[in-house]
Amino acid sequence: ARLAELRSELAREKAVAAVGSLESPGRVGELRRTIARILTIIEEVKKERKGGG
């Protein structure tokens, strides 16, 4: 749920950036990093459940 929210927010920020009037330029990078962290955690949990260590 949180991942979907972040992805839609990132899409909105990218659309605003395309127009050229970003309020917070660092926000896009921050969103990308947060999404990557969540995906990394999800993959780690999958590996643990599988027994891969």
Automatic annotation (TrEMBL):
Name the Pfam families on file: Ribosomal_L29 (PF00831)
Which biological process terms from the Gene Ontology are attached to this UniProt entry?
A: translation
Give the transmembrane ranges. none
Please give one Gene Ontology molecular function term for this protein.
Answer: structural constituent of ribosome
Q: Which Gene3D superfamilies match?
A: 1.10.287.310
Keywords (alphabetical) are: Ribonucleoprotein, Ribosomal protein
User: What domain of life does the native source organism fall in?
Assistant: Archaea
Does Ribosomal protein show up as a keyword for this record? Answer: yes
Q: Which InterPro entries does the UniProt record give? A: Ribosomal_uL29, Ribosomal_uL29_CS, Ribosomal_uL29_sf
A cellular component annotation (GO) from this entry: ribosome
Q: Which family does it belong to?
A: Belongs to the universal ribosomal protein uL29 family.
Q: What is this protein called?
A: 50S ribosomal protein L29
Organism in which the protein naturally occurs: candidate division MSBL1 archaeon SCGC-AAA382K21
